[in-house]
Design a protein that fits this description.
The chain is of the alpha+beta class. It has 5 helices and 14 strands. The protein folds into 3 domains: 6-50; 59-160, no CATH class; 180-315, Glucose Permease (Domain IIA) (Distorted Sandwich).
Amino acid sequence: MAKIKYFYNPHKLDFEKVGTSIWTIVLRVFGFLSASAVAGGIIFFLAYTFVDSPKERILKRENEQYKLQIRHLNKKINDLGGVLAELQNRDANIYRAIFEAEPMDINLNKAGQISADKYKNLEGYENTEELIALSKRVDDLAVKVDIQSASFDELGKLARNKKAFLAAIPAIQPISNKDLTRIASGFGYRIHPIFKTHKFHSGIDFTAPQGTPIYATGNGRISSAESGNGYGNHVIINHGFGYFSLYAHMSRMKARPGQLIKRGELIGYVGSTGTSTAPHVHYEIIKGNKKINPINYFFNDLTEAEYQAIRDIAAREGQSFD
């Protein structure tokens, strides 16, 4: 039962009931509701700011797992990059050296393979830069793996052809020369015998009596047998695998163009035709259109001591015979 309140009226000298108007009641109710709403808003704000909802807690756990996975992926990419770098090093310095193959360019066809629009779908996220950087690292690694795979395919073909390769590559001296002092001039700059100028000598000169047999230094096919260009009578053998050998200043050629030839087979005889001052054979090796030092291709018919002696003789500067 509601309590009845009274107040003393001094004018009437009597107690009277306290009356409450409808507007007073409305104002009181409105004030109560307003205060409740403000208090509720403050409580909601504090709870929203400092207390995570169940959904937020789930999202935060997922975000932590996402960051952990990103770190693991970066570590895996670093580990795979290290393994790939080791494979590239072995490829360039061991496997390709065995087969005398040119190093594989790891940047081959890399440019332009990845479209600039590929990462559009990763934009607009809080971690967009991190996601794009990770995706680029993965794509870069994938390109290098593809190139390395192609390199191993090429090396596989070379390995399957190893027997043919070893038989074809020049590996002996072009004349049977037991007297190693008969090397007159080696690879490098020498005094030209006619022009008396310091000129690059692109082969090795083997002196020998007129008519001494000249032999093919590796298996192959006769590419040409002709006269001219200062070489006089000369024969060129295509050994395959990018190798050619040239034998110049012959007195007579026995080999014919297109003829298949074996290592050690007679191809001509020592002479002094063309630009020459004495009987000898000028011997060259060409690999990939580049003339290289033949001294590195005498490993089949020399002992270690003989090979070192012939290197020392070939390195001496002096006058060439052509």
